[in-house]
Known about the structure:
Layout: H1 7-25, H2 31-47, E1 50-55, E2 58-66, E3 69-75, H3 84-95, E4 100-104, H4 108-116, E5 119-125, E6 136-141, E7 146-150, H5 159-165, H6 169-175, E8 180-186, E9 189-196, E10 201-207, H7 216-228, E11 234-239, H8 244-249, E12 253-258, H9 261-265, E13 271-272, E14 275-276, E15 280-286
GO molecular function: acyltransferase activity, transferring groups other than amino-acyl groups
Keywords: Acyltransferase, Transferase
Domain N-acetyltransferase: 8-144, 146-273
Amino acid sequence: MKEKRNRAEIVERCVELWEASVRATHDFLVEGDIEFYRPFVRENCEKLPLLLHYEGDEIVAFLGYDMTSIEMLFVDPDYRGKGIGRDLIEWAIEDVHAETVAVNEQNGQAVSFYARMGFEVERRTETDGCGKPYPILYLRLKNPPQRMVKVTGDKKAYLHLLLDADPCEAMVDRYLEESDMFVLERDGKVIGEAVVDEKGEIKNLAVLPEYQGKLYGMYILSFLAGYYKDRFSCLWVGTSEGGVGYYERYGFVQDHVVKNFFTDNYPEPIIDNGRPCVDMTLLRLEIR
């Protein structure tokens, strides 16, 4: 599962795989539908992270994902039944913490496959995302290895995590009690947390050091976007210069800068990657 070609070649091959797979499994589509969907598939292949399965030098299957949602999974018809799709899904569940996927209801093979992989139907729509009359089943993993839990008791019980993201306890006290707090559990252990205030600003987000670099921060952000989509039009986060790129990676865009925020509000210098923090950048993520 590795890339051996440039991105343009990979995209073209994935579009070819999509069409071959769809022609073999989506007998409810007509020729015009394939022509209609092809540009959307190409766009997704261009913008989404892709996991590729090679046989020799040839890509024979791929999975595309967006945060914790599996957006595409297609296998060359000649390689179906060999466990390749299962391997890709297991990787997505374990490594990018994927928990949701949408499938055509009329694609009975896919519906059965995801049921075997532990997914269950969460909701159904009569049409697909383009308004075409093909019902869609929205599936969610029944027993994911991690979960977010809202804290209803003593939020200060997680002070060690809170201080990883905001090293001044007095500052934490300003927002903690009036905000929602969630903890991320994995294998019975709390490995991360997030605090969101009444205006939709993420005031604190942290993951234990030994779990950093494993996309658990992305998982938390994905959860928050889903949890608050009916309450806020966007989520906000304030960060130092060093954190801007991290949030931009997951769809946040810069909104404005609060000059001298860290020097004006913290009694001790805040150091990020060896540099003192001065200004705070506010970023927003559209969630509706």
